[in-house]
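Hi C.,

You asked whether I'd gotten around to modeling the 483-residue construct. I have! Everything is below, sequence then structure, no commentary in between.
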Amino acid sequence: MADEVVLRFNEVTFEYLHKKPLLEEASFSVRKGAKITLMGQNGAGKSTLFGLIRGEYKPKSGQISITNGLTIGTSLQAIAREDMELTIEKYFAKAFEIVPPNLASRISKVMDAVNFNIPTGRRVGDLSGGQQARLLLAYALIQNPDILLLDEPTNNLDQAGIDHLIQFLIMYDKTVIVISHDADFLNCFTEGVIYLDVFTQKIEYYIGDYYSVVEEIRNRVEREQRKNAQLEKQIKDRKEKVNFFSHKGGKMRKLAQKLRTETEELEEGMVDVRREDKTINNFSIPAQDITGNIVTITAVKIIQNHEPVIKKADIILRKKTHMLVSGPNGVGKSTFLRTLVSDNHEGAKILEGVRVGYYSQDFANLNYDDTVFDSLHSAMREGVDGQKMRAVAAGLLITGDLMGRKIGELSEGQKGLLSFARLVLMQPGLLILDEPTNHINFRHIPVIAKAINEFAGAMIMVSHMPDFVKAIKIDEYLDLGKV
């Protein structure tokens, strides 16, 4: 039955790290075959809610009910670091308690579903970010789940990959719940929104496509703000009258008491207006004072038909020169950036003495065992003190309560904002940005684009977000898809 409820949260309360409440008596239900967006601010606990659905976490109170016998498959945000050394075939084998004898044919079927053709003997860690995104989805599908949970499935995907995923999800006849910051992607197939509020720890459920729901929320917040403004005016007026009449005698004192009671009722009627996502402050990334040919590129190794090919180039990047590296998933964009950062690329050279600020798409350059404080402190240059460090972090929503937390405990969005804070403190001469909008709330993206545009050093960037790329002034283009 299409109207059958397959998942229900009934007054679920959950506390996670450091006794921080994430859910407070949350209730919602999902029907069979529904396509639902899970929405909320960075750090609100969206990925943790997926963990509750999977049974990895237990609620403090309330009930989570899943229809008997239904299975759950999850496409996570990133492949676990310990799985990077596995072959693709062995990675898929991990999806089963008992490996089925027809594993090879099942792999072939799900790889076809996600439009991914690659030898299964390849090492997972050798795949590009976009290829890993396809692999994560295929890993979830090979389990043939009744409920499919997708956590940021468009990260690192090129436009062809995103278009294929949209087509797949429209045709998919099972239940899907998806976390994503890609509004256009969500609007193509979702029919409802579950909103997790980081401030109230409540959950709200809305019916409709993504853009309609966002507009409905915006209108509701405006109505509530107007209602509160009217009530505040009435409350102020009554309090002034209470103060005036309470000093009078007899009937005036009784009137003051009546007005005081009315004031309390008005205050109780104040609507708890949901605070929308707070946007990061405008920020700038100071550039190292350096001159000359900051990056010289004469050749780039690319991948064609799973084989390496050398592509010749003639590019020099100096101060205030911004370059976009483009090409399809798997062509070698991230590999080029990684080898350049590690000074291990034969056809490209960074000028000696240049500080390199690297934003890795999978945050591989962050030590997950470091505290946030230690990570920020290690990025500081001379002349930056602790007060400045905390101010930079706070402007990027890395607040004091996060300083003692290990990086591995942060949400992916918080790791992204931490990475930008480190770039500000580092004052690099060269920025190398690999998908810098991954996991980032869409409200922050114009602020980030402005900071990158104003960076006075050299910059190399890979991004599959067209609107973001359009907002960046690009001086040089390196298309790895053209030989």
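If it helps when you're writing up: Residues 154 and 162 are 6 Å apart (CA to CA).

Thanks,
B.
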